[in-house]
Amino acid sequence: xxxxxxxxxxxxxxxxxxxxxxxxxxxxxxxxxxxxxxxxxxxxxxxxxxxxxxxxxxxxxxxxxxxxxxxxxxxxxxxxxxxxxxxxxxxxxxxxxxxxxxxxxxxxxxxxxxxxxxxxxxxxxxxxxxxxxxxxxxxxxxxxxxxxxxxxxxxxxxxxxxxxxxxxxxxxxxxxxxxxxxxxxxxxxxxxxxxxxxxxxxxxxxxxxxxxxxxxxxxxxxxxxxxxxxxxxxxxxxxxxxxxxxxxxxxxxxxxxxxxxxxxxxxxxxxxxxxxxxxxxxxxxxxxxxxxxxxxxxxxxxxxxxxxxxxxxxxxxxxxxxxxxxxxxxxxxxxxxxxxxxxxxxxxxxxxxxxxxxxxxxxxxxxxxxxxxxxxxxxxxxxxxxxxxxxxxxxxxxxxxxxxxxxxxxxxxxxxxxxxxxxxxxxxxxxxxxxxxxxxxxxxxxxxxxxxxxxxxxxxxxxxxxxxxxxxxxxxxxxxxxxxxxxxxxxxxxxxxxxxxxxxxxxxxxxxxxxxxxxxxxxxxxxxxxxxxxxxxxxxxxxxxxxxxxxxxxxxxxxxxxxxxxxxxxxxxxxxxxxxxxxxxxxxxxxxxxxxxx
Amino acid sequence: xxxxxxxxxxxxxxxxxxxxxxxxxxxxxxxxxxxxxxxxxxxxxxxxxxxxxxxxxxxxxxxxxxxxxxxxxxxxxxxxxxxxxxxxxxxxxxxxxxxxxxxxxxxxxxxxxxxxxxxxxxxxxxxxxxxxxxxxxxxxxxxxxxxxxxxxxxxxxxxxxxxxxxxxxxxxxxxxxxxxxxxxxxxxxxxxxxxxxxxxxxxxxxxxxxxxxxxxxxxxxxxxxxxxxxxxxxxxxxxxxxxxxxxxxxxxxxxxxxxxxxxxxxxxxxxxxxxxxxxxxxxxxxxxxxxxxxxxxxxxxxxxxxxxxxxxxx
Amino acid sequence: xxxxxxxxxxxxxxxxxxxxxxxxxxxxxxxxxxxxxxxxxxxxxxxxxxxxxxxxxxxxxxxxxxxxxxxxxxxxxxxxxxxxxxxxxxxxxxxxxxxxxxxxxxxxxxxxxxxxxxxxxxxxxxxxxxxxxxxxxxxxxxxxxxxxxxxxxxxxxxxxxxxxxxxxxxxxxxxxxxxxxxxxxxxxxxxxxxxxxxxxxxxxxxxxxxxxxxxxxxxxxxxxxxxxxxxxxxxxxxxxxxxxxxxxxxxxxxxxxxxxxxxxxxxxxxxxxxxxxxxxxxxxxxxxxxxxxxxxxxxxxxxxxxx
Lengths: 598, 314, 307
Hints:
Strand content of chain C: under 5%
Oligomer: heterotrimer
Helix content of chain C: over 70%
Distance between the termini of chain C: 7 Å
Largest interface: B-C, 70 and 56 residues
Number of helices of chain C: 12
Radius of gyration of chain A: 24 Å
Radius of gyration of chain C: 21 Å
Number of strands of chain C: 0
Shape of chain C: elongated
């Protein structure tokens, strides 16, 4: 329980990286649309959006995405106050383009103070290009910015780019950079820095490596113009450059060059906060960057104007969920993620603390070792499917019913890929049928080892309950407990186990599900699967792809490579006097445009 | 005495070599891969291999050990795999909270332990004595992390006098530093105070029964003066020798207490590094803690020798 | 953390105190004097009760301590089916407490036995054969140079979470402490006249050790055994609390405490009950240990010192 390193990482990043590994060449895929569709929930299939040049993206969407992220207190009323309250040098609101939109950041904020954020695990670095660990991103995105940023509808908006053009043949991208952007070391950001950042990105980050299969050259035309030449069209390029969650971090060229594929030693970005110190297990300390030049558009999730209200931001690692709650209750921290779900009810009554349900957070999957051992027998896996009482497993692991849900689709209801095909095989709990199937299978009472992570209570409860269910139908299941670090290592070795379970992030693109590739732990080798994948990767039309995806889901229920038990949600809490929108979308919290009252 | 000291110091060398061997073996026998943990779940096999190679983790264990010993002798404990910082500076950063915690806990141990022991001895066999000693036993019998949890609940969450965890460095705020170690120090020092109380009581009783105290009493000197000037002074000698021991226990105790109170000290560094499989940090921190441990033990023994020179001969 | 017996202190103090008189007292006499020590007697009674609970656990426990009932999770105390409520997985707290006594007492007892077997052997060899002394004691010193909980933590990380591994880890931690106590007893005894006499009469080493030396080490071994027992119970809880103890489904008190930590605010009883159970057992052991020390070995009184 000391540390929680989460299974998958950023939804955005994972999807893009995996997707590319599998879909390389299938350039017609519209990543942005699938992202948008999955995360925003609305079926916007039009990928021309992302190709509009930044200058004329005037359609600043009003308000916010995920409902749970909303701050009740938000008002856009007293615009004039904000000027008075801005007592520091930050150019807070001069642009004033934000006429009447009711967006969070227009509310008057209070400058000053230290924002304290309790993280659930220690970030190994602030270099979110070097590691895929999600906990790195939360602090990192305050220091480093990207050429583009996601808005609340998961559309791409310019960030450090001022405007851009894509040639009609899709082989040349021209980025006009914003002028006068200062790095934290005082240097001005110029095109040459961006070129060097591209080089590092192309060597280090999965998306970058993939993009460089198409990119032939990145050059600085002048100080503020970057031109990218491609050998063949690559439509997800902009999405790949967009942050947070993947994206290309922008830093001074010499630093990018010096670091190469190694971990960054210096954290110099352009963000609203600059890096002060990282003392592992104590804190990561950032301070307001006084020379920050914010964009003028109204804030919209990660896009738009960023105002650093806090003097300092302190990210404190508090691995114990109870300590995170107690800390927020006592006022030691202003924000904490992943707290004990059972405390929700109690926390709702507190006037000092607000709670947000992050819905959905991940889904729970039970993975069978299909390479060897008893579970390689599909009939026995069928038996397991009938043995598991999904409801009981989810309740044991995730507590109150407001924190999980059962639903039959591989992709969540929020996604355009949601389908009920094969739903009759979802949660078909029937121990008698399971026993029959065990009889029919080749199973001879061999031990079925289930690796349960002893340091992650909720995941362990899944293993514990699942083992009980298997035993009930005559499968000789045995729980092997080990810590998460050992599970991650051992699951790559087919000798070590028959079953393990873990949580999976939601990815916009269905084919990026972790357990699909045959080389992922569990080793799902299936000709039928490969054939379906081939078709879905080359298909370009959404309806066509959707139909193939339905075939895929049917196959999943037949072959039972894994069992998707159900979706579960997360709980974040914050002090009631933390105002602004820290969680504009169900993703990483931001602490610009956020302030403390009183 | 000097020769004895030299002999004892020389004897530490094989001990520390063994300590380094034991910890290195343990560390490298532990299943799990540090690189898989830092790179996140999305990392490819190739990426993991590249970083493993960069870190020298693909070399044979004995080679890694020799490299480590060579560097350590030059004062370089290597780089943390997890956070990519020098192990030596990480340990130095961690020393302050741990020392603060241990010293404040020692302070509590003594100011609670000695007076209770004295009072119990003076009121020997009274109800006060009996209840103090029972309380002392109760204190030794509770897991101190449990006591810590209860203290957090009571004083931080309900009453709000102290932070729930974390540490404020002395350089930032002296008051803050003391506030942040107050509860953990009480949790840690409570059981030790009980033991010191028992110790003090016992030696006070021994002294009280000696002739010269009886004589002093018989001469009509006031009881309080006799006890404080005569008895306590003599009774404290064995108690003082216990301080070193208490200190070693407190250092060991910080491992759990720092975890309960999320104090970024040396103990928590080790626990976290074990979970992260951060080999160089575990190795370095264990060496430092073990060295401190054996040195404190050596000092204790030296004090004994000083008190009772006969021991040197054995 | 009270996790290690104070072998360092007691060993040092024994050195200081010099050879002890060999005591010749039968079990009946022990029992009689035990009765005179009210606290020790109370400890012995409480311990016997705990042992009975452990032995009769299946008869006493109202439910299966491992069975999960997700619908009945986090029931409060006084529930009609679950007298002491349920935990986060809907497991019956009363039953887990009852079965927990098996784990705690079992781990404690097994640790005492294993660490004594190893410790006595090493201590005897080291004390009796001076040639082995230096090497063995340096190795013991090296093990004792780790704070006990750290060493246990490291060993548990290697072995993985399980009850047996806890016993192994704690035994490795306590063996050197036992060995040092035994060695110093042997050192003092082997020079005594009657041992010399026995040797002069041509007694073999084995005979000397088992007939003459070992019986005279019994007192310190028994006393230290009760304390090791007590520390083992607390250490099991500490290891589980650090997340490296028994596998989480095992109904050990340490696991119960560790899980209860997340529910300190809403369900404080989940933390209080196992904490109190640990305290009762450890307190009984300490009372008993104190009493035994007074009875068996007056010179060791309060020499147990810290930890």
